[in-house]
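Box 3.1 A note on notation
Throughout this textbook, protein chains are presented in two layers. The first layer is the amino acid sequence; the second is a token string describing backbone geometry. Keep the layers aligned when reading.
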Amino acid sequence: QVQLVESGGGLVQPGGSLRLSCAASGSTYGISAMGWYRQPPGKQRELVARITSGGSPNYADSVKGRFTISRDNARNTVYLQMNGLKAEDTAVYYCQAQGINSWLGSYDYQYWGQGTQVTVSS
């Protein structure tokens, strides 16, 4: 199956930048789209950005123009470059991948990473 491990989170001042990485391992040949979600304290998890296997990105309105999602299929890694960070961006960020789960007989299974904390504060 697929395992996702996020890295790159931390504490940054408003206006600063961070780059998140998510490395996929296991049965990565079955992965199609990948994305980043976030969950602010006490709130629902929400989509931040998503990217297809062909490299076509999609962003939440709140991050358009500030965040950039990219992927390196050869390295099975997806990135999220975050610029112009705001306090409202504070959340746990989760990597997501759509793929195959042969154990469950599913060809449209959603995998999740453990999450990485991003805190934007002065």
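The radius of gyration is 14 Å. The chain has a mean pLDDT of 95.
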